[in-house]
């Protein structure tokens, strides 16, 4: 398990890296399962605020594949879970995600296809948390994050 500290985004409308977790190649094997939990907070107004979790080659930053991009415009805070697994290959991933809002809406399903990625996790790779604001005067805060890796081939 790895955890990270709070990071704040304001003053720009460009997608901005808030945190990066670099992982060594091969750490996940061919069927490793990652559980990523995040706590997000934003100011309350109607402007678009997007919180994303990306998977990419080491150093990819905002260029990695978005495993989840959550719209936080109508929330003040949210707890998000993003899970992904190597899909019988170190170069093929499937992701699953859900966001629970501060109003206690609970976990929900998605109306779109399961996100996939093709990142070679046999080589060093990064998990990257980013934020994007429609209004540079807004604020998006990544309050905390934690990542847990499970490997079915190791008991």
Which structural class is indicated by helix and strand composition? mainly beta
Low-confidence stretches: 102-107
User: Span from first to last CA?
Assistant: 16 Å
In one word, what is the shape? elongated
Radius of gyration, taken over Cα atoms and rounded to an integer in Å: 15 Å
Percent in helix = under 10%
Largest sheet: 7 strands, antiparallel
Give the oligomeric state of the chains in this entry, treating copies of one chain as homo and distinct chains as hetero.
single chain
- N to C succession of SSEs: EEEEEEEEEEE
**How confident overall, as mean pLDDT?**
88
Number of strands: 11
Number of discrete helical segments:
0
Strand percentage lies at over 45%
Task: Give an account of the 3D structure.
The chain has strands at 2-4, 7-10, 16-23, 33-42, 49-57, 65-71, 77-86, 93-101, 116-117, 125-133, 139-150. Helix content is 0%, strand content 54%. The model is unreliable at 102-107 (pLDDT under 50). It contains no helices and eleven strands. The protein is mainly β. Strands 1, 2, 4, 7, 8, 9 and 11 form a seven-stranded antiparallel sheet that branches. A four-stranded antiparallel sheet has the order 3-10-5-6, with no helix packed on it.
């Amino acid at each position: 398990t790895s955890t990270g500290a709070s990071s704040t985004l304001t003053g720009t409308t460009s997608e901005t890296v808030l945190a990066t977790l670099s992982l060594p190649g091969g750490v996940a094997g061919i069927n490793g399962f990652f559980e990523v939990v995040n706590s997000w907070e934003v100011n309350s107004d109607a402007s678009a605020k997007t919180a994303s979790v990306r998977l990419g080659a080491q150093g990819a930053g905002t260029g990695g594949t978005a495993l989840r991009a959550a719209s936080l415009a109508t929330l003040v805070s949210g707890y998000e879970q993003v899970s992904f697994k190597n899909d019988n290959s170190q170069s093929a991933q499937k992701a699953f995600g859900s966001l629970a809002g501060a109003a206690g809406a609970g976990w929900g399903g998605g109306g779109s296809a399961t996100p996939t990625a093709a990142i070679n996790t046999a080589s060093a790779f990064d998990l990257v948390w980013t934020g994007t604001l429609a209004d540079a005067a807004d604020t998006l805060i990544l309050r905390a994050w934690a990542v847990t890796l499970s490997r079915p081939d190791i008991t």
